[in-house]
Structure to design on (412 residues):
């Protein structure tokens, strides 16, 4: 059974891509800035680092756990409705954080923001982009949209730290609330992908696809390695500002570092989008994980300086999460097609966010117990290298057996 999909107009494609990029700019830009609040919030509310990072862990858990369900809702009932609902929840979660007086409100805020990110900043956005373009343009377009979205992670931390220097932390959160209002029209535009039916090559139900995914070695390996990706990245965004403050560095250095990571990640997204269209995606993913781990070890093993910190930020930006988007999205589309892509990306993202939660909360626990981050980065480096090797060695397709019959031997 086969069917052909109606090709969208250039205007449709342009609006979908603009809306998707805007969602990433706002969602990821705000998320990239939360680590800057650790010191002022814990001081103002008289809570521990572990309390604050627990709220960020809840955010990441909610993002991961809800992602698969949100993906199913988007696949079944439409991307537009789901993403617009997420935009409203995002604003509510930020407003809850702005009026927080203790840990409980921060936990509630984290849960709401996590659910909202599921609807706006990851698999649904990628699904909208993939539906809008042809398979030949898929990986490169994912890289371009991710690169545009990385601008938010450049602007967000710099703006946040500038406000925190001159005003209470609540003022910075209220600025986030007003910025998040723009996510509603962005979601409406990106949701135009609902009008573009995914090509169907065979009658496969969601249940069948999910069953295939749970037995597919490539998908399982990719998801397992994705756990370590989340752990290392969220550990850095959450704890790098505090680490630099402990080392006596200027608070603006941490904001500048996070901003540079975000800005340079746009270059990484374009690079992986281009490379992913030419080379095996699972190998590129593994190389990214290993290089990232080596960069973390090289930075933390020596006392930080402004120069080394900014160089580290540039290097990590090239290897940051947006650079994985075209590889992970392209790999899932290659294996399973695009019909239930949001659901499948959601499932893999549950594992990613489990790692993110552990990176945020575990780093806070280690800091409270040992007074330093040494054990945290050492553990992250070791498992990051292991994940990269696993992805390279076991994450590729199964070689096809040669079933061509051997030629008969000549007889005399």
């Amino acid at each position: 059974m086969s069917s052909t999909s109606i090709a969208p107009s250039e205007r449709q494609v342009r609006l979908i891509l603009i809306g998707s990029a805007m969602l990433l700019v706002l969602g990821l830009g705000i998320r990239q800035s939360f680590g800057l609040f650790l010191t002022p919030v814990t001081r103002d509310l008289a809570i521990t680092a572990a309390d604050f990072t627990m709220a960020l862990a809840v955010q990441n858990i909610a993002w991961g756990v809800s992602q698969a369900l949100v993906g199913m809702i988007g696949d079944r009932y439409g991307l537009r409705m789901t993403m617009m609902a997420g935009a409203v929840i995002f604003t509510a979660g930020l407003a809850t954080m702005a009026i927080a007086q203790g840990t409980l409100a921060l936990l509630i805020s984290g849960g709401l923001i996590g659910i909202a990110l599921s609807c706006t900043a990851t698999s649904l956005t990628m699904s909208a982009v993939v539906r809008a373009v042809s398979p030949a343009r898929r990986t490169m377009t994912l890289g371009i949209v991710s690169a545009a979205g990385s601008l938010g992670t450049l602007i967000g931390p710099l703006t946040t730290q500038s406000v925190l220097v001159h005003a209470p932390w609540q003022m910075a959160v209220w600025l986030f609330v007003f910025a998040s209002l723009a996510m509603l029209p962005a979601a409406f535009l990106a949701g135009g992908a609902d009008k573009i039916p995914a090509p169907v090559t065979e009658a496969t139900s969601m249940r069948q696809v999910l069953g295939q995914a749970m037995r597919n070695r490539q998908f399982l390996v990719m998801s397992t390695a994705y756990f370590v990706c989340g752990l290392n990245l969220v550990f850095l965004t959450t704890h790098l500002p505090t680490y630099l403050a402990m080392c006596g560095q200027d608070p603006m250095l941490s904001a500048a570092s996070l901003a540079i990571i975000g800005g340079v990640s746009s270059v990484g997204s374009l690079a992986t989008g281009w490379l992913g269209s030419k080379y095996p995606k699972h190998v590129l993913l593994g190389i990214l994980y290993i290089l990232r781990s080596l960069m973390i070890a090289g930075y933390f093993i020596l006392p930080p300086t402004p120069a080394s910190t900014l160089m580290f930020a540039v290097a990590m930006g090239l290897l940051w999460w947006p650079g994985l988007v075209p590889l992970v999205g392209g790999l899932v589309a290659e294996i399973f097609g695009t019909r239930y892509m949001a659901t499948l990306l959601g499932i893999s993202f549950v594992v990613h966010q489990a790692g993110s939660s552990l990176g945020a909360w575990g780093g806070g626990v280690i800091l409270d117990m040992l007074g330093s981050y040494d054990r945290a980065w050492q553990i992250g480096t070791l498992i990051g290298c292991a994940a990269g090797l696993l992805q390279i060695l076991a994450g590729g397709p199964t070689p096809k057996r040669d079933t061509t019959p051997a030629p008969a031997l000549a007889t005399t």
In short: The chain has 17 helices and no strands. The longest helix spans residues 135-166. The CA atoms of residues 251 and 299 lie 18 Å apart. Confidence is low (pLDDT under 50) at residues 408-412.
